[in-house]
Amino acid sequence: MKVPTPKELKAILDEYVVGHDEVKKILSVAVHNHYRRLESSFAQEKNDEFKDVEIEKSNILMIGPTGTGKTMLAKTLAKILGVPFAIGDATVLTQAGYVGEDVENLVRYLYQNAGEDVGLTECGIIYIDEIDKIASKTDNVSITRDVSGEGVQQALLKIIEGTTCRIPPKGGRKHPDQEYIEIDTRNILFICGGAFVGLDKIAEERAGKRAIGFGGEEKAKETADIRPEDLVKFGLIPEFTGRLPIITVMKELSEDELVQVLTKPKNSIVKQYRKLLKMDGVNLEFEEGALRELAKSAIKRKTGARGLRAEMEKLMTDVMYEAPGNPKLKKVSVTAKMIKEKLLA
Description:
This protein is 47% helix and 13% strand.
């Protein structure tokens, strides 16, 4: 495949994800470099002066509150590149031998989403959400680290840095007599995401500055200065943080940005509802005040962009119930008053 340039990647991300310009730039460069790395490993020139130079894989850690778009960014990157994508939740993962999901299941999901094509699987992207939940729950990590959390980190470490996973071809639990599919994870790009509540305070204490939180508007650059030692103090093992060299910090979306989330992206929620109603001959319009009420509600509930869909579903239920098959209904205008009445109901 032809790998898009970082500028091309960011331009497409801009069409789907609002805000986070610096984060999108960092991700675009990282993903471009990763897939160029794969190209270089497949096509080495005989006289290449760098033929003995091995480019290491740079997995990514995305830090930010819920609803800021971490999952959407990872999913959109996979879509742009045309590579298989899988999502896993760190909170349900366990180390081998315990009840729960084996970390190798992440690779099995990717294999299934790749149409059970081993080659495609080995150049896919895996996004692991809530990675902060497998960290120690205390500052004194050397004495009281959460053992099961460290076990999961150790198990993930092997897959993230590169190993051969043996997964059952039809899913289910492993047993000694079955045949396995072997997947090499060295070229799979891993993107991990989490809220990391309290990490900002650790970073600010290290820097000797007042903690203001990832959602703070002022001094945004200061809060984004997260270092590996901060993650270790939070409860991630040093080896694990070492396999996530690219760190991005995403702040909470502002009211203006949430209004843009509703209307600007190609697959925005408003556009989706307008398309649905247009199929029934109904024109849907939103007043500016209505969009701002939805944004304010998401901020108040601290649900970010993710909460906008839930708010919209609640708002649009009656309209979507009445519109189909109603020839008299030609236009629906949503006002700020309607939003307030519905969301307070």
